[in-house]
Specification:
The protein is an alpha+beta fold and 346 residues long. The protein is 25% helix and 33% strand. It folds into 2 domains: 228 residues, Rossmann fold, CATH 3.40.50.300; 101 residues, Nucleic acid-binding proteins (OB fold (Dihydrolipoamide Acetyltransferase, E2P), Beta Barrel), CATH 2.40.50.140. A 6-stranded mixed β-sheet has the order 6-7-8-3-9-10, with helices on both faces. Strand 9 and strand 10 form a beta hairpin. Helix 2 runs parallel beside helix 4. It is elongated.
Length: 346
């Protein structure tokens, strides 16, 4: 039996279903992200697990215990909110100790556990400071220490990195994953940031309109989207229609491609295929290459993002910044991709 199980969990507001009978299993020690756009039901799902929102139907079971029969304060869960929710008048140590004090932990044990939690998040020397004296990243670590110090059975993270700047957010992703692995705590995170979800998670659960569209490892969801929504939402995508199909080969404009087995069985004229921008290469001019004109290019540090005009419509291409020459705006180029890099669009 899974450590955490959501069984046809629902939340309705009048006739509107914020969460529509979803089922999800999370194993002990896993890091699972609920990912999707605003209004998809991910935060409501997290709040029902935490006990802050009462479900309209279904069950939440953790380690064989029906959580819906347990008040929120007694569920033994660690929660980190988007705004951290630190007490400004308390020191770092007092903020971290708050949950232990509520549980009547003896003072000698309390001090040791607070010191241990602060060391875990890299704040051992800041116990006497107040939140106003800390950076955003340090405040986030305090909130994480406060959630972990009670040794929760489940850690819930609600957009925990969204208030940080881009560089600090990347650094905290590494730290958060390190801390989760060090503690082994089962973790469920809500985020709308797909890069964050893929960087941190063992599994990504993509939600849309209150339902789960795909539940898979990050690479699996990216490479093999289970629905048109996942295809459009997760990463950048080029979608093309197959044209003529003969003898296991298909044409897309001037390109003639041998269909891989996973496509050949379902291929028909008009069927759509996905090609990720990083899988498309600039190629020498020749028969079978797709002609294109560079409409725009954007430098993004480690790569260039190109938008190209072709007779198949706009095409996105990502090329690694390898220090070499790259086509400029207005240049005429040619594109190719491998048949094995195409994926069916459900």
């Amino acid at each position: 039996m899974s450590y955490l199980a959501l069984e046809r969990l629902s939340k309705h507001y009048g006739d509107a279903a914020a969460v529509d009978a979803i089922s999800l299993a999370v194993e002990r020690g896993e890091f699972v992200s609920l990912l999707g756009p605003s209004g998809c039901g991910k935060t409501t799902t997290l709040q029902m697990i935490a006990g802050f929102v009462e479900p309209s139907g279904g069950r939440v079971v953790m380690d064989g215990r029906d959580l819906l029969a347990v008040p929120a304060a007694q569920r033994g869960l660690g929660v980190v909110f988007q705004n951290y929710a630190l007490f400004p008048h308390l020191t770092v140590a007092q903020n971290v100790a708050f949950g232990l004090e509520m549980r009547k932990v003896p003072k000698a044990e309390l001090r040791g556990r607070v010191d241990e939690a602060l060391a875990l998040v890299g704040l051992a020397g800041m116990a006497a400071r107040h939140p106003v004296q800390l950076s955003g990243g340090q405040q986030q670590r305090v909130a994480l220490a406060r959630a972990l110090v009670i040794r929760p059975g489940l850690l819930l993270l609600d957009e925990p990195l969204s208030n940080l700047d881009a560089k600090l957010r990347e650094e905290m992703q590494i730290e958060l994953r390190r801390i989760q692995r060090a503690t082994g705590v089962t973790t469920v995170m809500v985020t709308h940031d797909q890069a964050e979800a893929m960087a941190l998670s063992d599994r990504v659960v993509l939600m849309h309109a209150g339902r789960i569209e795909q539940d898979a490892a990050p690479l699996q969801a990216y490479e093999h989207p289970a629905s048109s929504f996942v295809c459009d939402f997760l990463g950048k995508a080029n979608v093309f229609a197959l044209e003529r199909i003969e003898g296991g080969r298909a044409s897309i404009g001037p390109l003639q491609l041998d269909l891989p087995d996973m496509l050949a069985a379902h291929a028909r004229p008009g069927a759509r295929v996905l090609v990720r921008p990083e899988k498309i290469a600039f190629a020498p001019q020749g028969e079978g290459a797709l002609g294109a004109t560079v409409k725009s290019r954007v430098f993004q540090g480690n790569h260039w993002l190109y938008q190209l005009d072709t007779n198949l419509g706009d095409v996105l291409v990502i090329r690694q910044n390898d220090g070499g020459q790259h086509p400029d705006e207005g240049e005429r180029v040619h594109l190719r991709w491998r048949a094995d890099d195409m994926r069916a669009v459900p």
